[in-house]
UniProtKB/TrEMBL annotation:
The keyword RNA-binding does not apply. It comes from Pardalotus punctatus. The gene is Vnx1. Residues 348-468, 571-713 form the Sodium/calcium exchanger membrane region domain. Its main location: membrane. This is VNX1 protein. GO terms for cellular component: endomembrane system; vacuolar membrane. Keywords: Antiport, Calcium, Calcium transport, Ion transport, Membrane, Phosphoprotein, Transmembrane, Transmembrane helix, Transport. One of its GO terms (biological process) is intracellular calcium ion homeostasis. One of its GO terms (molecular function) is calcium:proton antiporter activity. PANTHER family: VACUOLAR CALCIUM ION TRANSPORTER (PTHR31503), VNX1 PROTEIN (PTHR31503:SF10). The chain crosses the membrane at residues 136-161, 232-262, 317-337, 343-365, 377-398, 418-440, 452-472, 519-539, 643-662, 668-689, 696-716. It holds the Pfam family YccF. It is a multi-pass membrane protein. It is found in: Endomembrane system.
Length: 722
């Protein structure tokens, strides 16, 4: 759903004057790096100005001006959307695919227009109605909904006064059995009946329609009673049952997403068709070339299913995030009301809490993108740095608090494994999966190797800093084993030892408190400082390495004024509420994870590096895949790199800082498996991204290596203390 790039033209008197060279000078003078006001500079042959005008380009060589040709130009509908697009390419900002403003209706594709259109449009040739989706409707809803209409029609005929509604239900029974290729119209009342009804002065105040002459023997004042009595019988006996059935159909079809047309059909039938006077409803079948011209069309449906409804959004929120929002409420109510596990067990509550994190991560991401797009650079940087990792930090901190209260070291090991799983997954799995899916559509994809190199350098630095205390402990720590057995029965022979680890508390913890702990604090200060330097380098002094420029060329119908989905205050409220719900779900997850870790036959390493690490990142993975499908692999790679950098440079130092004020069992000393897996992943990722281009084969290599590491974690024994 990407609009075509428009021709960059000026007024009607001639082409827009100026050149890429003029634009380059404007970019040089733009010290603040505001990309939203740089003018129209789409890539096209330059048109020399009719009258030579002095330009700052006279101070620069032609070689500098020609370098502008290789830069990437993006087209935005408005200034807010332009800020969001430029923020996607900035280091440290959350990459967001969805629009934060309402797109003009005329610029949308025909597929998307069909998703949002009401079911009241008649097409001259609708094609065959025998489709798999229509057959699925018949199996799931059509047969029993039609049978219910028949039963309600029988009841209304028995009441006699409700016979007109019985005829309507009989007609609608055939319609809802197979509504495709049929139309429901609102028929106007003939003038002759209006004159007769005007003499009686009776009408339906509820439904707003006059009583038809064919349902009464004579046109006299007392016939208004029949209309009122029949309507009362309908509202008491028929309408509630059918409204309940249509409500069930509407909710079920909406949750299935692809059947949203059925949900619209049921909602419109309940709110419009069933509340009209029966004489004003006409059900008819359309011929292939027939287009009815008389009467208002209320319902006309050709397809029950549409696979493109995954793009459907409600007030800017994707339909899947909308459908998962009730799951959050169920999780919170079930988790805190049924604290003694009478209704469900710990496994169900843990699963629900983990699934609830996905929509909350989406709302947090949408709120951050909305605030950043409507604010200046400083506010956007603060919001992204503060709430960018809030999803993971809430879970890690609640797990460490629970482990400290129970005196269980297993929770600290779970947090370390989740940190490593996030690092390895974002370095290998996220870019690898995006390269595979994007490579299916595009034979070869290219990306900005220089901007990727900045993230790679920071990633090397962060991984080295995070694992420096671990390597220090391996060198100077004392190897202690739990038990050893002599294999050869010879005192000088070989010994088989189990549960070996490096003891840092030898001599009353002198090594740890005098050497390792100061090193941990030093690293925790240097890593955020390096992150700030990276922000200043990429966003202030060397913004040109991203080569991203926003054009103000607008397509017909575009307006400079943006209609945002969420205002800044609304986005802030949603951000705070989502963070609060995220903390509650993280608390429930840590509360019910202990039985799973204790009773599960799977290694705790595997559970932590897969489920706990990657489930909160699912919205980011979806964004990366969407960018890759649009041949924008640079953002797909940056998504994984930025998350990995934030894990090492922000999340881990925050956890170390937290342990200073709230002592826990968390120490920045990882197992050998975590160290080797992380370092190997970073080296492999940098090797793949050296040449600035990739294909699906290289993505397959990254994904396969990730699965190999998962197999290693699956067969690895559980960490000590669990």
């Amino acid at each position: 759903d990407v609009p075509k790039v428009p021709d960059c033209r000026g007024d009607s008197n001639g082409p827009r004057r100026g050149s890429l060279c003029d634009w380059h000078c404007a970019a040089i003078n733009n010290v603040q790096g505001d990309l939203g006001d740089l003018g129209c500079h789409l890539h096209r042959p330059r048109v020399p100005p009719a009258v030579p005008t002095p330009s700052c380009c006279q101070q620069h060589s032609e070689e500098v001006c020609e370098s502008c040709v290789g830069k990437t130009t993006l087209t935005a509908e408005n200034a807010v959307e332009a800020n969001k697009l430029s923020n996607n390419y900035k280091f440290g900002f959350k990459k967001w695919k969805s629009h934060v403003t309402a797109r003009p209706w005329e610029d949308r594709s025909e597929i998307v227009k069909e998703l949002y259109s009401d079911l009241n449009v008649i097409r001259g040739s609708g094609g065959s109605t025998l489709t798999c989706g229509n057959g699925l409707y018949l199996l799931l809803f059509g047969w029993w909904l039609s049978l219910l209409y028949v039963l309600v029609a029988a009841v209304m005929f028995v009441t006699i006064i409700g016979a007109p509604y019985g005829r309507l239900c009989w007609a609608l029974a055939g319609y809802f059995l197979w509504p495709f290729g049929k139309v429901i119209q609102k028929v106007e009342v003939p003038k002759s009946q209006q004159v007769c009804e005007a003499g009686t002065g009776e009408s339906s105040a509820l439904l707003g329609g006059p009583t038809p002459r064919r349902w009464r023997p004579h046109c006299w004042a007392g016939t208004g009673y029949w209309h009122r009595a029949g309507t009362a019988a309908w509202l008491c006996l028929g309408y509630p049952v059918l409204a309940l059935a249509h409500g069930l159909v509407c909710v079920t079809a909406w949750l299935l997403v692809v059947l949203i047309p059925v949900a619209k059909l049921s909602a419109r039938a309940t709110s419009r068709v069933l509340l009209l006077p029966p004489e004003r409803v006409l059900v008819r079948r359309l011929r292939m070339t027939e287009v009815p011209l008389e009467g208002e069309v209320i319902l006309c449906c050709y397809r029950a299913a549409n696979p493109y409804y995954y793009k459907y959004a409600v007030d800017g929120i994707n339909v899947f995030a909308v459908n998962l929002l009730p799951l959050v409420l169920v999780t919170l109510v079930l988790g805190y009301v049924d604290s003694s596990n009478h209704l469900t067990g710990s496994a169900v509550k843990f699963t629900l809490a983990l699934l609830s994190i996905m929509p909350l991560s989406y709302y947090i991401g949408m709120a951050i993108a909305s605030i950043s797009a409507q604010s200046n650079f400083a506010v956007g940087a603060v919001v992204n740095a503060t709430f960018g990792s809030i999803t993971e930090l809430t879970f890690y901190i609640t797990a460490l608090i629970k482990g400290s209260r129970e005196g269980n070291r297993c929770y600290a090991e779970v947090v370390k494994s989740a940190l490593t799983g996030t690092l390895v997954g974002c370095v290998l799995f996220v870019p690898g999966l995006c390269m595979v899916i994007g490579g299916i559509r595009h034979q070869e994809q290219r990306f900005n190797s220089r901007s990727a190199g900045v993230s790679s350098a920071l990633l090397f630095l962060s991984v080295g800093g995070v694992f420096a205390p671990t390597l220090f402990s391996k060198v100077y720590g004392k190897l202690v084993c739990g038990e050893c057995h002599n294999v050869t029965q010879n005192p000088l022979g070989h010994y088989l030892c189990h549960n070996c680890h490096f003891d840092l508390m030898d001599n009353n913890g002198t090594l740890y408190y005098s050497h390792v702990q100061p090193l941990v604090y030093t690293v925790s200060i240097l890593l955020p400082a390096a992150y700030l330097i990276g922000l200043f380098f990429t966003l202030k002094t060397h913004t040109h390495i991203y080569d991203i420029h926003i054009s103000d060329c607008h397509m017909p119908g575009h307006h400079h004024s943006a209609v945002v989905h969420w205002s800044r205050w609304r986005a802030l409220v949603i951000l705070l509420l989502s963070t609060l719900c995220m903390s509650a779900c993280a608390d429930l997850a840590t509360e019910h994870i202990s039985p799973i870790l204790t009773n599960s036959t799977i290694s705790q390493y595997f559970i932590s590096v897969t489920v706990l690490a990657m489930v909160p990142e699912l919205p980011e993975i979806v964004n990366g895949i969407q960018f890759a499908l649009q041949n924008n692999l640079s953002l797909s790679i940056e998504i994984g790199n930025c998350i990995a950098v934030q894990v090492c440079m922000l999340q881990i130092p925050i956890l170390v800082l937290f342990t200073i004020f709230y002592p826990t069992n968390f120490t920045l000393v990882f197992s050998d498996l975590h160290v080797y897996a992380s370092m190997f992943s970073v080296v492999l990722m940098n090797y793949i991204f050296m040449d600035g281009k990739c294909d699906y084969f290289q993505g397959t290599v990254l994904v396969m290596v990730y699965f190999i590491l998962l197999a290693v974690y699956f067969f690895a024994p559980s960490p000590s203390g669990c």
